[in-house]
Amino acid sequence: MRWMYHIGRYMRLLIRSFRKPEKLSVFKDLLLMELESIGLQSLGIVALLSIFMGAVICLQTAHQIGGWIPIYTIGFTVRQTMILEFSPTLIPVILAGKVGSNIASQIGTMRVTEQIDALDIMGVNSAGYLILPKVVAGVFIVPFLVVFSMVLGVGAGAWIGVATGLSPLADFEYGMQVDFRVFDVVYALTKTIVFGFILTSVSAYHGYFVEGGALEVGKSSTKAVVWSVVIIMVSNLVLTQMLLN
Amino acid sequence: MIELHNLEKSFGDHHVLKDVSANFERGKVNFVIGRSGSGKSVMTKCTVGLIEPDSGFVLFDGRDFTSMSQKDRRGIRQEIGMLFQGSALFDSMTVLKNVEFPLLMLSHMSEMERRNRAMACLERVELGDASTRFPSECSGGMQKRIGIARAIAMNPKYLFCDEPNSGLDPQTAIVIDNLISDITSEYQITTVVVSHDMNSVMEASDTIHFVHQGSICWHGNREGLLDGGVRELEDFVFASDLMRKIRSTI
What angle separates helix A182-208 from helix A2-17, to the nearest 10 degrees? Predict the structure, then answer.
């Protein structure tokens, strides 16, 4: 029954977080900071992973096809893998590790050093001030990171295919366009928006309710990552079933 | 004036506050003293609404804070300043931004007005020249003074100080005590100081409430404190050799 307590407390925190901000100008400034923190500062890791994953998927696909399977299958597989699963699911999982632990430890430290109490005593809605900008930034910027990842991954696949001579560019381009459905991108971005919400809000929840000291902040950071990943994975299954059937 | 009426609070089986009633007077430094774990911090947190009491109520100048909606509570909280044990300054902001913060969030002042008010508060605690530093670049005593500057930025009617001298050397502690005392009489604030530091009690208190095992078992002033009369209070006040020597001289 403990999980019901956590769900209830999480929902109550979200309701508090989504109240109208005290000052819109302050909210805008915080939102820009979070967009930079969650988005711009994650570009490097997203780019690195996407380039290597796109290239590896290309090489693996080329290794497995032969005989009657056409060469353009390489471009097709790289595109589908990047769009359907790697970018929309694994990038948020990576971000749960990078951004989620950061959010949980930042808010958790504020809790144990009484900075959140200080906000509450002033009459500032601490949940709204600390969590809302992060959640809005996550929901807004993670889809951009995912699109960035898709483009880089497919591009890296094309480059490695041509560079190794496994796939001529024309075949790769053809494969990229074969049976392309815009709905696949819509499906991917829909998942991404949900995952952006999960990774920011679940991490914030774990940080906000820390009790104790530095040790507990560390534990909350770990829990934030683990639970964000678990919930992302379960949501992935549910959303895929809902959207693709 | 702040009135506590029959506050009760338990955490599981642990009965922390037992029928606590007290009056904290305006324009006076009201000390709440007691041993660690006696319930004085819980009492303060119940008073300001950081913890909900199980029963009883708190009146801020006759306004029942306990039964108010969260929205109405926010109105009263804007009249409260609080100095935390660890200062609770925002690490990511400069000293000036810390003091400006409540004004930014809760007032309709222009940027220039906010800055002037924040600088005036910092100068009041003699830290005008530290405005561009970050809290991590300030000493413990400076952080306490910045905390006081932030607490008075909104011209509060009520000031709460949780262990204001913890971790400070005796000389700096006296500076903080005097500052709290001066600000209280200057702005006619109702000040509540939670402490177990007897030097502070003797230096700055106007009224004293002694908390023992979740109940207020004595209240009075510093002269009455030395007279004793309650065994638990005497054990607390005269725990140190120094205090016993003082007692023997009077």
Answer: 100
Cβ distance B88 to A118 less than 8 Å, yes or no, reads yes
Determine the residue among A15, A37, A121, A126 to mutate to test chain B binding: the one whose Cβ has the most chain B Cβ atoms within 10 Å. Answer: A121
- pLDDT digit string (tens) for A142-178? 999 999 999 999 999 999 999 999 999 999 999 999 9
Q: Do A23 and B86 touch (CB under 8 A)?
A: no
Task: Mark out the alpha helices in A82-210 (DSSP H runs).
Answer: 91-95, 101-112, 115-122, 126-130, 132-164, 169-177, 182-208
Q: Is B40 left (phi over 0), alpha (psi -120 to 50) or beta?
A: alpha
| Rounded alpha-carbon distances, angstroms, from residue B182 to A117, B130, B193, B197 | 25, 21, 14, 19
Task: State which H helix or E strand residue B3 sits in.
Answer: strand B2-11
Nearest to B50 among A115, A120, A129 (CB): A120
> Could you tell me whether strands B215-220 and B207-212 are parallel, antiparallel, or unpaired per DSSP bridges?
antiparallel
CA distances from A92 to A88, A185, A186, A225, B188 (A): 7, 16, 16, 11, 54
Percent of chain A that is helix, strand, coil (3-state, to 5):
85, 0, 15
Report the largest interatomic distance among the alpha carbons of chain A, rounded to a whole angstrom. 72
pTM of the model: 0.88
Contacts of residue A173, Cβ cutoff 8 Å, sequence gap at least 6:
A75, A158
CB pairs under 8 A between A and B: 53
* From A89-93, A149-153, A238-242, B106-110, the region with the lowest mean pLDDT: B106-110
Instruction: Report yes or no: B144 at the A interface, CB cutoff 8 Å.
Output: no
pLDDT tens per residue across span B176-224: 888 899 889 988 999 999 988 888 888 889 999 999 888 888 888 888 8
Q: Where are the domains of chain B?
A: 1-79+158-250, 83-155
Classify residue B133 by burial, with Cβ atoms within 10 Å: 0-12, 13-18, 19+.
middle
Q: Which CATH superfamily is domain B1-79+158-250 in?
A: P-loop containing nucleotide triphosphate hydrolases (3.40.50.300)
Strands B207-212 and B29-33, how do they pair?
parallel
A194 vs A166: CA distance, rounded Å? 37
